[in-house]
Write a structure and sequence with these properties.
Structural class of chain C: alpha+beta
Number of domains of chain C: 4
Oligomer: heterotrimer
Pfam families (chain C): BPD_transp_2
Radius of gyration of chain B: 23 Å
InterPro entries (chain C): ABC_transp_permease, ABC_UrtB_bac, BCAA_transport_permease
Order of helices and strands of chain B: HHHHHHHEHHHHEHHEEHHH
Membrane topology (chain C): Multi-pass membrane protein
Strand order of the largest sheet of chain C: 4-3-2-1-5
Largest interface: B-C, 59 and 55 residues
Family (chain C): Belongs to the binding-protein-dependent transport system permease family. LivHM subfamily.
Strand content of chain B: under 5%
Shape of chain C: extended
Chains: A alpha/beta, B mainly alpha, C alpha+beta
Distance between the termini of chain B: 25 Å
Radius of gyration of chain C: 38 Å
Distance between the termini of chain C: 111 Å
Subcellular location (chain C): Cell membrane
Chain lengths: 246, 410, 651
């Protein structure tokens, strides 16, 4: 199996506190992976490092078949290279319509000059509508996204991620604050997405992770504690200690 | 779904129509071509106001749409004025000098003419040599190009440095203010080559048009200002209408999110910052020939803050708001500070508006910020039935510009 | 009655003639009677010198009385007396040697000597010698002052003579120093002069440099061939070099009559204009005279015709420059002395440089403490609360005006400052709290709008101050004990006000640290800064804390205003002058950290003084460069010197 993203020996510390400690992690091109771990395990910092928001003190992050180093790229270059990220809290552009949000995310040339003279084609329009259908917002296209419900915003954000057509999706706690029905919809979306690309889900909720039916990586104090199926890792004594306390 | 540019921006047509009517009215009522109901000096005031509206549009683009509170756009405005002022002053002095030297028995050499011009221009700062910045002052086309290039390049370099190091929010405002202060202090020096605090003067006289009366010249400049404002408005509307507008508003509301969508935020900011600096430079180049004089005090940081005040009072994030704010506040300010407002006797104390106007402006600005964050432009929402969001409550997004709870509920 | 009086005076006159005429001092004066009567500055010197060098005990008194216009001459016999007025017509005559009253005289019988100011000065110089040995130390000190102000060769011997008998150790030291200085200038013996010069190596006194500098002063000269050996040559100059441009070199040649003058362009032009005939100058039409080449051609024609003097051509100029040697020579002819003086001056320059660096450091420190004082309040509001307060400068101004008003009511300056400091704190604290309650708390989370709203307040307050206090600067006078400066030597000094501001800055640093670290308020402020919701759930009222923190920051601004008012003039623009620097201080230092503010203030203070030192003529340029530096600095440390990292940075 080839790897899409390879993180090796990465460490980062904030004012002496080691948020990530010699972490190694890799994922293939079409794989769904869940990352779990207690608070402060370094889950969000791990995503920050991959997406270029935080620069690690040491270690290497390699991407794609060409094994390009992501550490030399900034956030927008990494995003254009094919890594999409969904934040914990839904962040969509509330002042703009659902249509504009999706259009902005659509995979197109992102250079200012090109964008300035960009006018949407029928194909682009169709693609936006198709995405809207997929996330269940087809009849909300002209609404301001700020007016959507919390769950709808989460989906819109996932839709925007899909519109980017990334090869790797990083999803931070997608199920937080969702109703049961919404969760199921979200699970389906993620599983569907993982058929053609790599998806990494960071989640607290064990039920949600179980429903994803995928490999699980357990983080603790900035490094990998265990990896395998959910049943496998939940039997691991160390994991039990960490989650239940010693 | 796909609508034409005008259909998406109905305000453009309305604005252009109103501007056209206004220009026609001033032309007909002015002294130059019309019946003379409006004095030449008032035509100049109106022409200057149009230029201020143009720079306010630039400010609205950079602040209202992109969220960069630049306190440096009046510096670009002033630089544009300086660039055109150099040519105006040089060319006019050259004519005067040539005329006076032609009276002499011996015809002057080119060097003598240049020295005489130098003495005329730089006598006040105790010099007669031309500083390097005046190299192209003799050439109108080059100075016209510099009107665009100098503010543009300064904005490009400054913006590149500032955005590259991710300076945002109030830090950026303070940094732009520092840049403005540095520029003003530099120009205040006598050896800056731009006549120190004397500035450039006599700019209202067009070289080669000595026999054209000022009433006519003022109308010409009024037309030019109106045309520039019209073009500026259309360009700005074009920039903010499409996907580019979506992106920059996205940057305003949540910069990090735009970055994770793969847009190079720095590039967009730099583009808008530079474009608006160029617009400001052009506005300045039209303003100062109507004002007649430019000096470094015009560039002082306070001027750029006033610019922000105009846009805020007019209503940022909408182009006509910026125009209304600039026109309303600057004309009101002219009216108050011109001593034309009757004093207000309060029994023990008489309020002289020349002294109290700034107090009034300051406090009313605070009130606008607190109670009418959408400014005068917000009144149009009342007319069209759109309701203004209530921006109190907790933030919905992680960034400062994002909507608030109550706002989203509507 | 008058006749009687005249007769009496006549009698007296002739009864004591011997004493009046025979005293040595009277004889001496009679010798120089012509010169004294002539009373001309140019010729009087021998008379004064004779008196000074006579060694007669009465000489000093005579000189003093002469200087004081109390010396009179009797017309009848030309004898000199001191005279005292009895009434409008009658004067009492006093013998100049003994001081005894000898006679009275009618006013028209005697004539007052009226030395002009030039002569009085010369007499004064002569008197110095006597004063050096005067029993009164104050007069001796005066004499030393007079000598150091305006030294003369003759003083040297007098000074040397007086040293041995000097009892006051301070005066003795001064005399010895002055003696060495005069030795440099006036001694005949080169060895003594060199010894004296060397004794001043590394001396910081301005007087030492004043004595040494003339020794190394040079003048330019030019000769054909090599410079004469008798000259004390400083250096040979190359025409066309930076030290001697060609034009100046040629001007030297012309001045020395070694070359014909070159007619300058204006003169050529005037000559041409004077010789226009039938629209032509020579053979050149006037219309063609708009180039230098044509003008030279026309002028050459005129010169050939003998109408105007010929001008030197380029080739002649080059020729003349090449065939002469240009050099600088010392006015002092002894090369050993000039060498010693140059060496001593080098030594002094080094020492002065080091001391200037020390002085600059003190200056920079005091500027840094002013910036720190101005910025510390801002560090609270901006750093701790994340609120930009553009009206901070106006709070500083309010503090300064509070000081001014208190001084109008309380005349005692010490007392008024002691009242003003807490009062300014109270007033600006109140203003800050009012502003926070009325405006800022509605705008939390909207920093750009806070910036603009506080700016609105700023312009309103500034204009209010203008309306109330007028536009002219108001003085805030410091108490007497803050006047003056701590002078360490001639180069290093620092005014007491600056020391006081430095101390005040230290006090505020301590106070701030104490409040933040040791008090309940500080703990709550830190809690609200880090996590307002959490703090609120712990029972802290964030609104109250924000209000108090804002009031505290504003109050400190008010106190800073009093301090700054003592040092600068109080105007309505006082605050505006400091606001940008204060923001810079906070931003450069790093937000949310008092040590960062301290470092930022130090950096900016030292930077500004350093740039001013490199470019002393221009404080505007210094500020420009400083701001440019800060813009570049932000490139490398966008979050300031002391930056918060990680999640706490909130990015």
């Amino acid at each position: 199996m080839t790897t899409l993203l390879e993180v090796s020996g990465v460490s980062v510390s904030f004012d002496g506190f080691k948020a990530i400690n010699n972490l190694s992690f890799d994922i293939g091109p079409a794989e769904l992976r869940a990352i779990i771990g207690p608070n402060g395990a370094g889950k969000t910092t791990f995503m920050d490092i991959v997406t270029g928001k935080t620069k690690p003190d040491s270690g290497e992050v390699l991407w794609g078949e060409m094994s390009r180093s992501l550490l030399k790229m900034n956030e927008s270059q990494i995003a254009r290279a094919g890594i999409g990220r969904k934040f914990q809290r839904p962040t969509v552009f509330e002042d703009q319509s659902v249509f504009d949000n999706l259009l902005m995310a659509l995979k197109k040339d992102r250079a200012p000059w090109k964008v300035l003279f960009y006018r949407e084609t029928t194909a682009d329009k169709a693609r936006v509508e198709e995405l809207a259908e997929e996330i269940g917002l087809a009849d909300q296209l002209q609404r301001k996204s700020g007016e959507l419900s919390h769950g709808q915003k989460q989906w819109l954000e996932i839709g925007m991620l899909l519109a980017q057509e990334p090869r790797l999706l990083l999803v931070d706690e997608p199920a937080a604050g969702m109703t049961l029905a919404e969760r199921e919809h979200t699970t389906d979306l993620l599983k569907e997405a993982a058929k053609t690309r790599a998806v990494v889900v960071v989640e607290h909720d064990m039920e949600f992770v179980r429903r994803l039916e995928c490999r699980v990586t357990v983080l603790h104090e900035g490094s990998v504690l265990a990896e395998g199926s959910l049943d496998h890792v939940t039997k691991n004594q160390q994991v039990i200690d960490v989650y239940l306390g010693r | 779904m796909r609508k034409s540019f005008v259909a998406r921006n109905p305000s453009v047509l309305i604005f252009l129509a109103l501007l056209g009517v206004f220009t026609l009215a001033v032309t007909v009522l002015g002294e130059g071509l019309g019946v003379g109901l409006i004095s030449t000096s008032f035509v100049k005031t109106l022409g200057k106001t149009l230029c201020l509206c143009l720079v306010a549009i630039a400010m609205d683009l950079v602040w209202g749409y992109t969220g960069i509170l630049s306190l440096g756009h009046f510096a670009f405005f002033g630089l544009g004025g300086y660039m055109i002022g150099m040519w105006l002053m040089y060319a006019r002095t050259e004519l005067i000098v040539a005329e006076s030297l032609a009276q002499a028995e011996i015809p002057p050499t080119p060097d003598e003419i240049r020295d005489a011009i130098g003495t005329q221009i730089f006598g006040v700062v105790g010099g007669s040599d031309f500083p390097a910045v005046w190299t192209f002052a003799h050439s109108l086309p080059i100075q016209l190009a510099l009107v665009v290039l100098v503010p543009g390049l300064l904005a490009l370099v400054f913006g590149w440095l500032a955005f590259r190091s991710r300076v945002t929010g109030v830090y950026l405002s303070i940094l732009t203010q520092a840049m403005t202060l540095a520029l003003a202090l530099y120009l205040f020096q006598n050896d800056s080559g731009l006549r120190g605090n004397n500035g450039l003067s006599g700019l209202q006289n067009l070289p080669g048009a000595a026999d054209v009366p000022q009433s006519m010249v003022s109308i010409w400049f009024f037309w030019a200002s109106a045309a520039a404002l019209a073009i500026g408005y259309v360009v700005a509307a074009f920039v903010v209408s499409g996907k580019f507008g979506s992106v920059i508003r996205g940057i305003r509301d949540d910069e990090a999110r735009v970055r994770f969508l793969g847009y190079s935020v720095e590039g967009y900011k730099l583009f808008v910052f530079t474009l608006t600096a160029v617009i400001a430079g052009i506005a300045g180049a039209l303003y100062y020939p109507q004002a007649g004089i430019i000096n470094p005090a015009e560039i002082a940081p306070i001027a750029s803050i006033y610019l922000a005040v105009w846009v805020a009072i007019g209503g940022r994030g909408r182009l006509y708001g910026a125009v209304i704010g600039a026109a309303f506040v600057s004309l009101l300010s002219t009216w108050f500070t011109g001593g034309q407002v009757p004093d207000l006797p309060l029994g023990i104390y008489t309020v002289k508006w020349v002294d109290w106007w700034l107090v009034l402006l300051g406090f009313s600005f605070v009130l606008v910020t607190l109670f009418a964050p959408k400014g005068i432009g917000g009144l149009f929402d009342l007319l069209t039935g759109r309701h203004g969001p209530d921006r109190h409550g907790a933030a919905l997004g992680p960034d400062q510009g994002s909507l608030r709870e109550k706002e989203a509920e509507q | 009655m008058r006749i009687l009086l005249a007769a009496l005076s006549f009698l007296v006159l002739f009864t004591l003639p011997a004493a009046a005429q025979d005293s040595p001092i009277q004889k001496l004066l009679q010798q120089h009677r012509d010169l004294i009567e002539q009373s001309s500055r140019r010729t009087i010197a021998p008379a004064i010198d004779a008196l000074r060098d006579s060694g007669l005990p009465a000489a000093q008194v005579v000189l003093e009385k002469w200087q004081g216009k109390e010396l009179w001459q009797r017309k009848a016999d030309g004898l000199f007396f001191f005279a005292e007025r009895i009434d409008a017509q009658t004067y009492r005559l006093v013998d100049i040697a003994t001081g005894n009253e000898t006679a009275t005289a009618a006013k028209d019988e005697i004539e007052q000597l009226k030395p002009n100011s030039g002569i009085r000065g010369m007499i004064g110089a002569a008197l110095v010698q006597f004063q050096l040995t005067d029993p009164d130390p104050a007069r001796r000190a005066d004499a030393l002052n007079a000598i150091s102000r305006d030294a003369e060769p003759a003083h040297l011997a007098a000074l040397r003579a007086s040293i041995g008998a000097e009892t006051d150790p301070d005066l003795r030291a001064r005399k010895e120093r002055l003696e060495r200085l005069l030795t440099i200038s006036y001694d005949e013996d080169p060895a003594a002069r060199i010894a004296a010069i060397q004794s001043f190596a590394g001396d910081l006194g301005v007087d030492a440099r004043a004595a040494l500098n003339p020794l190394v002063a040079t003048t330019r000269a030019v000769v054909s061939g090599n410079p004469p050996a008798a000259e004390n040559l400083a250096r040979v100059l190359e025409p066309g070099s930076e030290a001697l441009p060609k034009d100046e070199a040629y001007a030297l040649l012309v001045a020395a009559d070694l070359a014909p003058p070159r007619i300058n362009r204006d003169d050529i032009r005037a000559a041409l204009a004077a010789n226009i005939q039938n629209g032509r100058v020579g053979s050149v039409p006037v219309a063609q005279l708009d180039t230098d080449a044509a003008r030279e051609r026309a002028y050459a024609e005129l010169a050939e015709a003998g109408i105007v003097p010929a001008t030197a051509t380029e080739a002649q100029v080059a020729e003349a420059l090449a065939s002469h040697t240009f050099y600088e020579r010392y006015a002092e002819t002894d090369p050993e002395i000039t060498a010693a003086a140059a060496a001593a001056l080098d030594d002094i320059a080094l020492k002065v440089g080091l001391n200037q660096a020390a002085d600059l450091t003190l200056d920079a420190l005091s500027l840094a403490s002013i910036y720190f004082l101005a910025a510390i309040g801002l560090a609270v509001t901006f750093g701790v609360m994340g609120v930009i307060n553009m009206a901070h400068g106006e709070f500083i101004m309010m503090g300064a005006y509070t000081g001014y008003v208190v001084q109008q009511l309380v005349p005692d300056y010490t007392l008024s400052i002691l009242i003003a400091l807490p009062l300014a704190f109270a007033i600006t604290f109140g203003a800050g709290v009012a502003m926070e309650r009325l405006v800022i708390r509605w705008l939390y989370n909207r920093p750009l709008e806070t910036l603009l709203a506080t700016f609105g307040i700023s312009i309103a307050l500034q204009q209010l101050a203008k309306n109330i206090f007028g536009t002219q600067a108001r003085p805030l006078t410091s108490p007497d004990w803050l006047d003056g400066a701590l002078v360490i030597n001639d180069v290093v000094s620092i005014s007491y006000i600056r020391i006081a501001i430095f101390v005040l800055a230290l006090i505020f640093l301590g106070l701030f640290l104490f409040i933040m670290r040791k008090t309940r308020l500080g703990l709550e402020v830190r809690a609200v800064t880090q996590n307002p919701r959490m703090a609120a759930s712990m029972g802290i009222n964030p609104e109250r804390i924000n209000m108090l923190a804002f009031g505290l920051g504003s109050g400190i601004a008010g106190v800073a205003g009093v301090a700054i008012g003592l040092y600068a003039k109080v105007t309505s623009e006082l605050g505006q002058d400091y606001i940008v620097q204060s923001f810079m201080t906070v931003v450069v230092g790093g937000v949310g950290n008092i040590w960062g503010t301290l470092l930022g203030a130090t950096l900016i203070g030292f930077l500004q003084k350093g740039i001013e030192w490199l470019n002393p003529s221009n404080t505007l340029a210094a500020q420009t460069y400083m701001i440019l530096f800060i813009i570049l600095f932000i490139q490398f440390r966008p979050r300031g010197i002391i930056a918060l990292r990680g999640r706490a940075a909130g990015d």
